[in-house]
C-alpha cells in the first residue's frame, strides 16, 4: 500500500475542512476514475471503458461470468491414467510431432513441477507452439491419457502466468473468470482488479449492517468474495449482500418521495354526500362484489386523508375495475370536481365513453370523449369551458391526446389511467400537472408480480380486486396444434349457431417474411368464406379510428359475429356474448398477454372456450403455454411470465425509470426486496421525517 497516497474520504457527502477553512465535498471512493488512479496506459483505459469499467466502483463491482475452482493443484508425479486434474508447472520444452504412418500430428508442451514431468498434448493443432515459451509458468486442466514414465495429458483449459503475483492470483483458490474485451487477458484483468481492491477497498464505507439472520458478509468482504470466493457459494452470499444495498437505496428513495408528496401537497378532500353514487348503484343491473366494495372503502379513505392519492388498482381481467373507477369518479364529481380517464387505445376510450354515458346520462353527469381524432370537433370544446357555463362537473374520457397542451381542464380532482402499463411514468405525470395535485388511480389488468409491485410500482399504494362477479360461465382453455383447425372451426360454427360470437386473433397484420406466422389481413377472407352466412369483421391497429370504432360497435351489437383481429382487442374490450377465442400462433405472445386476450371471453353467463393454436410446434413453447390450460389465476401467470420473459412486458415499452441493478434480481429476489422495504420504512419513520403508515402495498 502506498503510504504517501492521500486517503480518500469515506462517504459521498463527507465534509472536509481544508487548511483555508473552506468546506468542500469530495466524491466517494467508488466514483473516482479508475484508469487514472491506477495509472494504466491509454490503450488499457480504452479497453476498460469498453467493459464499462470507468470508476473504482465499476471495478469493485465487475462481476465474474464464472469461477474456476483451482484449489486442488495436483503433483505431476502422482497423476494416474484416466483422471482429470489441475497441474501447475514450468514450461521446459515445446515441439510438434508428426506421424509418418498417418497424417496426424500433435503439439506437445513439456511441463515440470517438483514431482515430475508431464507431456501436455494438443492433437492436430500447432498454435500452442506459438503460445507457450520456455520458462513460462502455466496452469493446465485436462485428462491424463497415459501414466507411468512418460505421463501424457490432453489439455482442456490452460492459462500462462508470468510471475509470482499471477500464480498467487490464479492458482490454489477459486479464481474468477471475467468477461473480457479484445486485447485483454484474464491474467491482466485479474491483476488489475485485485490491485484496485488492494489499494482502495479499505476506503469503502462498510455500509449497512443487516440483521444477522441473513448471514451477510460486510460490504468490503462481500466485494472480496465476489471476486475470490473462499468457498463455493460465497459469491452468491456476496451478491445478495450487494443486492440488498441496492434495494435498500431504492426503497429509501421511494419512501422519501412518498414522504415529500405527503408533506408538500394538500390533497383534495371530497366530503361526498352520495347524491350521485346512491342512485347510480341503485340503477346498476348488478350489485358490487365484496372486493369492489373494499377497494372503494380504501379509496374513499384516501380521498379524505388530505394527501393526494397515488393508488394502483389491480384486478384480474373481468373483475370489474371499470365500474369501480366510475364510483370513484362520482365521489369527486359529487364534490364538484372534474375527472379525467385516460385509456391506451381509441377502441377502449370510446368503449368506456359508451359505458359511462349509459351510466352517467341518467344522473345528468356530462361524459366527454377526447381523442386525437375528435378533439377538433366543435361540440367537443374542453369540458372546462362547458362546465364553466353549466356549472356541472363531469368526466372526460380519452386517449393520450389528453396529455397534449390543447387539452385543459378546471378543478381536476381525479386522474384515472386504465391499463397503465401502456403508458410511461412521464405521461402520467404530465396528465397530473393539468390540475393541482389531483388524486391518481391507475388500473391494470395484468397483475403485477410481487417483486415489481414493491419496486417499479413501489410509490403506489395497491388495491386489489380478487373476486370475480357472480354468475359468470367458466372459461376453458385448450392448447392445440394447427392441424386441428378443421375440428376447431366445426366447434366454432356450432357456437355461432347457438347465437354466440367469436374472436380470432392473429399476431401480425400483413404477410411478413415469416411464412410460419399467419397474418390477419390474409386470413380474414378465408374466414369470411368459412363462416358464411355469419359475418366477419376485421380489426387491427393500422386502421383508422372511425373504422375501428365502427367494427367494434358492429361486433358489440352482434351485426358482426366473428371479429378477426390482432391483439388490439387485448385491452379492456367488453362483449359478453362472445364465448370463443381462437388465437393463432399463440407461441408468438407472452403469457400475460394471452391471459389478457382470454379475458375478453367468459364475461357473460355462458361457458366460454379459448383455443390456443400452435403454429410452430416447438416443445418449448408447448411447455411454456401449458400453464394457461391449467390456471386462470392472473397473479400466478404474471409471476410465470416474469420468469419467462423478464420484467419488460410489465413495464411496457414506454415505461421509463425501470430500475437497473447490478446485483438485485427483479425476478428472484422477492425476500430481499421485502426486507429492504421494511428497513427503509423503519429508517424513514425513526428519523421522524415520515409518519404515515404504509398499508396496502403489494400483496403477500
Ligand atoms: P376489467 O376489470 O377487466 O376492466 P370490466 O370493468 O370491463 O373488467 O368488467 C367486466 C364486466 O363485468 C363488465 O361487463 C361489467 O359491467 C361487469 N361487472 C362489473 N362488476 C360486476 C358485478 N359486481 N357483478 C356483475 N357484473 C359486473
Ligand atoms: Mg378494463
What features would you describe in this structure?
By secondary structure, this protein is of the alpha/beta class. Among the domains are: 72-172, OB fold (Dihydrolipoamide Acetyltransferase, E2P) (Beta Barrel), CATH 2.40.50; 277-465, Rossmann fold (3-Layer(aba) Sandwich), CATH 3.40.50.300; 475-651, P-loop containing nucleotide triphosphate hydrolases (Rossmann fold, 3-Layer(aba) Sandwich), CATH 3.40.50.300. Helices cover 35% and strands 20% of the residues. It is built from 23 helices and 23 strands. Strands 13-14-12-15-16-11-17 form a seven-stranded parallel sheet, with helices on both faces. Strands 18-23-22-19-21-20 form a six-stranded parallel sheet, sandwiched between helices. Helix 14 (425-432) links the parallel strand 15 and strand 16. Helix 7 crosses helix 8 (234-264) and helix 10 (290-303) runs parallel beside helix 11 (321-334). The two termini are 50 Å apart. Residues 1-24, 376-389, 653-657 and 689-700 have low confidence and may be disordered. Magnesium ion binds at residues 321-322, 418, 445, 572. Residues 321-322, 418, 445, 572 line the site of magnesium ion.
Amino acid at each position: 500500500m502506498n503510504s504517501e497516497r492521500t486517503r480518500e474520504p469515506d462517504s459521498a457527502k463527507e465534509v472536509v475542512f481544508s487548511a483555508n477553512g473552506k468546506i468542500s465535498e469530495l466524491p466517494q471512493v467508488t466514483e473516482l476514475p479508475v484508469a487514472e488512479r491506477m495509472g494504466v496506459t491509454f490503450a488499457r483505459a480504452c479497453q476498460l471503458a469498453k467493459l464499462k469499467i470507468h470508476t473504482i466502483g465499476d471495478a469493485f463491482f465487475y462481476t465474474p461470468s464464472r469461477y474456476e475452482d483451482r484449489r486442488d493443484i495436483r503433483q505431476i508425479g502422482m497423476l494416474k491414467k484416466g483422471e482429470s486434474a489441475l497441474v501447475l508447472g514450468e514450461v521446459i520444452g515445446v515441439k510438434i510431432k508428426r506421424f509418418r504412418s498417418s497424417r496426424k500430428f500433435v503439439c506437445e508442451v513439456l511441463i515440470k513441477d517438483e514431482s515430475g514431468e508431464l507431456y501436455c498434448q494438443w492433437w492436430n493443432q500447432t498454435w500452442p507452439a506459438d503460445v507457450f515459451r520456455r520458462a513460462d509458468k502455466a496452469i493446465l486442466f485436462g485428462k491424463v491419457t497415459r501414466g507411468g514414465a512418460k505421463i501424457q495429458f490432453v489439455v482442456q483449459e490452460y492459462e500462462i502466468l508470468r510471475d509470482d503475483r499471477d500464480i498467487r492470483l490464479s492458482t490454489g483458490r477459486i479464481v474468477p473468470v471475467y468477461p473480457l474485451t479484445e486485447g485483454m487477458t484474464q491474467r491482466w484483468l485479474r491483476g488489475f482488479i485485485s490491485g484496485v481492491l488492494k489499494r482502495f477497498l479499505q476506503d469503502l464505507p462498510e455500509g449497512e449492517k443487516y440483521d444477522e439472520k441473513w448471514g451477510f458478509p460486510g460490504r468490503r468482504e462481500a466485494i472480496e468474495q465476489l471476486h475470490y470466493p473462499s468457498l463455493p457459494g460465497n459469491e452468491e452470499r456476496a451478491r445478495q449482500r450487494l443486492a440488498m444495498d441496492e434495494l435498500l437505496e431504492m426503497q429509501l428513495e421511494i419512501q422519501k418521495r412518498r414522504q415529500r408528496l405527503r408533506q408538500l401537497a394538500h390533497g383534495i378532500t371530497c366530503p361526498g354526500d352520495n347524491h350521485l353514487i346512491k342512485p347510480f348503484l341503485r340503477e346498476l343491473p348488478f350489485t358490487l362484489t365484496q372486493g369492489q366494495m373494499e377497494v372503494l372503502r380504501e379509496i374513499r379513505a384516501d380521498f379524505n386523508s388530505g394527501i393526494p392519492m397515488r393508488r394502483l388498482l389491480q384486478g384480474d381481467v373481468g373483475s370489474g375495475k371499470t365500474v369501480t373507477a366510475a364510483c370513484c369518479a362520482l365521489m369527486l364529481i359529487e364534490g364538484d370536481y372534474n375527472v379525467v380517464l385516460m385509456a391506451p387505445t381509441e377502441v377502449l376510450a370510446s368503449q368506456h365513453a359508451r359505458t359511462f354515458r349509459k351510466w352517467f346520462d341518467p344522473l345528468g353527469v356530462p361524459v366527454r370523449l377526447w381523442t386525437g381524432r375528435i378533439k377538433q370537433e366543435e361540440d367537443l370544446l374542453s369540458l372546462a369551458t362547458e362546465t364553466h357555463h353549466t356549472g356541472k362537473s363531469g368526466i372526460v374520457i380519452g386517449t393520450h391526446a389528453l396529455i397534449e397542451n390543447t387539452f385543459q381542464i378546471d378543478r381536476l380532482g381525479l386522474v384515472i389511467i386504465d391499463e397503465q402499463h401502456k403508458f410511461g411514468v412521464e405521461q402520467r405525470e404530465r396528465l397530473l400537472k393539468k390540475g393541482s395535485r389531483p388524486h391518481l388511480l391507475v388500473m391494470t389488468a395484468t397483475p403485477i408480480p410481487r417483486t415489481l409491485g414493491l419496486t417499479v410500482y413501489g410509490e403506489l399504494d395497491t388495491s386489489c380486486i380478487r373476486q370475480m362477479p357472480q354468475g359468470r360461465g367458466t372459461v376453458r382453455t385448450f392448447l392445440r396444434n394447427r392441424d386441428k383447425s378443421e375440428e376447431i372451426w366445426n366447434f366454432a360454427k356450432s357456437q355461432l349457431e347457438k347465437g354466440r360470437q367469436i374472436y380470432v386473433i392473429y399476431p401480425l397484420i400483413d404477410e411478413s417474411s415469416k411464412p410460419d406466422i399467419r397474418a390477419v389481413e390474409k386470413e380474414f377472407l378465408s374466414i369470411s368464406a368459412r363462416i358464411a352466412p355469419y359475418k366477419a369483421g376485421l380489426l387491427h391497429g393500422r386502421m383508422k379510428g372511425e373504422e375501428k370504432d365502427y367494427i367494434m360497435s358492429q361486433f358489440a351489437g352482434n351485426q358482426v359475429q366473428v371479429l378477426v383481429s390482432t391483439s388490439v382487442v387485448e385491452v379492456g374490450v367488453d362483449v359478453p356474448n362472445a364465448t370463443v377465442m381462437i388465437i393463432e400462433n399463440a407461441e408468438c405472445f407472452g403469457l400475460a398477454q394471452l391471459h389478457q386476450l382470454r379475458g375478453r371471453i367468459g364475461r357473460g353467463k355462458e361457458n366460454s372456450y379459448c383455443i390456443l393454436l400452435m403454429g410452430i410446434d416447438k416443445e418449448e413453447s408447448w411447455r411454456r403455454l401449458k400453464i394457461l390450460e391449467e390456471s386462470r389465476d392472473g397473479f400466478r401467470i404474471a409471476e410465470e411470465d416474469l420468469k419467462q420473459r423478464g420484467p419488460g412486458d410489465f413495464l411496457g415499452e414506454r415505461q421509463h425509470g425501470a430500475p437497473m441493478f447490478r446485483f438485485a434480481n427483479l425476478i428472484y429476489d422477492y425476500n430481499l426486496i421485502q426486507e429492504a422495504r421494511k428497513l427503509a420504512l423503519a429508517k424513514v419513520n425513526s428519523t421522524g421525517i415520515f409518519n404515515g403508515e404504509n398499508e396496502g402495498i403489494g400483496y403477500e
